[in-house]
Amino acid sequence: MLTRIDHIGIACFDLEATVEFYRTTYGFEVHHSEVNEEQGVREAMLRVNGTDDGGATWLQLLEPVRDDSPVAKWLAKNGEGVHHIAFGTADVDGEAEAIRDKGVRVLYDQPRRGSMGSRITFLHPKDCHGVLTELVTSAPTETSAEPEAH
Amino acid sequence: MLTRIDHIGIACFDLEATVEFYRTTYGFEVHHSEVNEEQGVREAMLRVNGTDDGGATWLQLLEPVRDDSPVAKWLAKNGEGVHHIAFGTADVDGEAEAIRDKGVRVLYDQPRRGSMGSRITFLHPKDCHGVLTELVTSAPTETSAEPEAH
């Protein structure tokens, strides 16, 4: 079962400038930052709200760290904007298998590492009416993380 | 203050087919459907989760009802995909004014009617790192609506 919108992934050319835009315009603060070498991105996670499954919904700002990363190629084609949406689930393995059985292409054989120790996979956008769709199971300690003190 | 991701707006060519995709693939059901003549769209609202501000997060599936609507033009250029993201607030008027004062273009002079009796406005995507961004204040009775029985 998919129990929340976990995050909206937004691709940008300049992570610091985009973080600053979201901070000054809306008041959202960075809860967590990391580099995901496998995905070829630097990312900042901004927590927007808690959800009734005990998790939270985030904005995930993404800047490519190498020109051959999927996000770099996407930015070169589309410019800045919403790159993907992610649904949270307690069971990314089971959901991915069930969705694959329905004929939707799942991009990874096994879930990979996502933000904050989560496990993630992606569904092919051409099978999802144009929406690159991620499934994510949070690391237990991060599920309902409150913002850091500032 | 923006207190939740209210919805993700997804543009599609065939509303019924897209609703069916979200139902059969993920189990999301339509809570509400309407035509917004001013926006030139037919829409279906799929409730994903409740939020800790007493509201909810939705998928808003949008099909244009006329060729000159903004969503029709967007689809002709981009194909199906994520059209906009929307932040929920108790005070769309005050938030729009504060954001305009920061130099971000707000597309309407006054908020207009959105889904389920809400009041909405949009921020110019070129001022928001490529993201068409909506601000929405829900109608009081719809804020935390549970799914319809099926």
Question: How would you explain this protein's 3D organization?
Answer:
The structure is a homodimer of 150-residue chains. Chain A is α+β, with helices and mostly antiparallel strands. Chain A has one domain: 2,3-Dihydroxybiphenyl 1,2-Dioxygenase, domain 1. Helices cover 21% and strands 38% of the residues of chain A. The first copy, chain A, has 3 helices and 8 strands, in the order βαβββαβαβββ. Chain A has helices at residues 15-26, 70-78, 92-101; strands spanning 2-11, 30-36, 41-50, 56-64, 81-89, 112-113, 119-123, 133-137. An 8-stranded mixed β-sheet of chain A has the order 2-3-4-1-5-8-7-6. The longest helix of chain A is centred in the N-terminal third of the chain and has 12 residues, at 15-26. Chain A starts with a strand and ends in a 13-residue tail after the last strand. Chains A and B meet through strand 1, helix 1, strand 3 and strand 5 of A and strand 1, helix 1, strand 3 and strand 5 of B. Chains A, B: GO terms for molecular function: metal ion binding; methylmalonyl-CoA epimerase activity. Chains A, B: Belongs to the methylmalonyl-CoA epimerase family. Chains A, B: Keywords: Metal-binding. Chains A, B: Residues 4-138 form the VOC domain. Chains A, B: It holds the Pfam family Glyoxalase_4.
